[in-house]
Amino acid sequence: MAISKPPLVLFRDGDDIRRDLRLALASATDAERPGLERALALVEAQCARGDDDVLAQWTRGVLEAAGVDPARDHVKAVAAVRGAVPELSLLAAHRLVKGAAGEL
Predict the structure, then answer these.
(1) Per the count of CB atoms within 10 A, which of 39, 76, 81, 87 is most buried?
(2) CA distance 26 to 41
């Protein structure tokens, strides 16, 4: 059974932030430059991450906050993810848990 659309919609505005940081760097003082360069490097790293990685990190955060170990109790892990996003289907939550555990 295939999912026709992703279970969650990711809003990633890193490109806008990256553009704004580059504009700020163009007119930065010597004192501002190191901080802006570091911020730009962090944004670049986040922008380079794939959607699957972002979803897996989000799922791991939900499971950690719920105190659930998906390796020990997959059912509770799926329930925790569905609790965070109630409109998720059972299959979508299952796949998110499997993806977060590196099993997909």
Answers:
(1) 81
(2) 15
